[in-house]
Amino acid sequence: MIYLDNAATTKMSETAIKAMFSAVNEVYGNPSSLHSVGQKAAEALQNARETIAGLIGAKPNEITFTSGGSEADNQAIISAARLGEKKGKKHIISTAFEHHAVLHTLNRLEKQGFEITLLDVGEKGLITADQVEKAIRPDTCLVTVMYANNEIGTIQPIAEIGAVCREKGVTFHTDAVQAAGHIKLNVTEQNIDMLSISAHKFHGPKGVGVLYAKRGIALTNLIDGGAQERGKRAGTEDVPAIIGMAAAFKEACENIENDSLKVRALRDRLISGISKIPHSILNGDPTQRLDGNVNFCFEGIEGESLLLLLDDKGICASSGSACTSGSLDPSHVLLAIGRVHDIAHGSLRLSLSAENTEEEIDYTIKAVREVVEYLRSISPIWRDLVSGKKEFVIKEA
Ligand SMILES: *Cc1c(COP(=O)(O)O)cnc(C)c1O
User: Measured from the CB, is residue 182 less than 6 Å from ligand 1?
Assistant: First the structure.
C-alpha cells in the first residue's frame, strides 16, 4: 500500500517502537510508588519530560502529559476560560477552521455564556496578526489559533499572533498537533502560552500527547483523582507511551531539515501533477503550507467514491478529515475557505511523510487522473457541466 494519510496518523518509527518496547519490559513501575522500581519509572518519566521541554523551548514543569491532542486542546481552552471567568472576561477568539477538539470545546463554553469570535480565514486559509489584534476586546481571555491546519495544511503566523496577544495581555493557545515534529517550535521565541501536541502525528504512539502551559497558568483538571502531573491530570502515566513519544519527537526534530526538503519536493511534484487535471483546484496557500500536505477539489466528483477507487489501486488517502469521513456533511474547513457544498464534497487530501518515494508519487498522480476521469465519465452532473446545462464552479485557468 502507498500510505498518503499521515495527517490522520503516522506509522511508528523504529526508534519509537524500540524505546517504547524496552520501556514496557523494563520500566513497568508506577512512577508514584516510593520503591526503587517505581522510582526508576519516575526517573524515566522525568527524562522524557526534560527531552520534550527542551525540544520546544519550555521548562520540564511546564509539560503535562495527556491522552493526546484532543485532551490537550480541551484542557488548555477550559483552563483559560475558567481563569478568564474569574476576572469577568468571557470572550474567546479563534478561527472557523480549527480542529473539532477546539471548536466543540468552544461550543460548549458558548452554552455556558462565553462569547466566541471566529476569525475569517479567507480563501487561502490564512489569518493575520492584525485580524487578531482588531478582534481583541477588554474582556478577551483567550486566543486559540491552530499552528497548521490538518486538512489544507496552511501555516499561521504564530509568532506574530503571539506577540499581539502578549502585548494585550491575552492568553494565547495554539493547537500545534500538525506542526510538532514537522516545523521547529519554540514557545519562548514564538510567544506561546499554551500548546498542544500529539505523538501519533510524528511517528510516535497513539493515545499520548502533551499540553505545554507557561508557568503561572493554573490548569483546570478535566480528570479528578490522584496527584499525578502536579495534581493537574489524574491517572497513572503511560510511561512506555510517553517514552516512545519523547523518542519519536527527538528523532523528528533532529530530522526536520532533511525531511522537510525531501517531503516538500515530493509534495510539489504531486501538486504539479494533479493540477493538470481539468477543473481541479488546490485548497490552501501554495507556499504557506505544511511540507506534506496536498489537498484538491475536483468538480463533478464525490470524495467518497474517489477514496474507494484509490484504495482499490493501493493508495490510502482521505477526503476531509478522519472525523468528517463517514458523515454526509462536507468538511467545515473547506466551507470556511469558501468552497460551495458540491465542490467541498469532491475533495482529496494526500498527506506525505519522508517514507514516501518519487515512484509512489508518480503512480499516485497517474491513479488520481484515471479515477477522476472514470468518475466523471459516469457522472450525470459532469455531463450537464460539459453540455453547458450547468455552469462550472472551478473554471479553467
Ligand atoms: C489529530 C489532531 C488532533 C487530535 O489529536 P488526537 O491525539 O488524535 O486526539 C487535534 N488537532 C489537530 C490539528 C489534529 O491534526
Answer: no
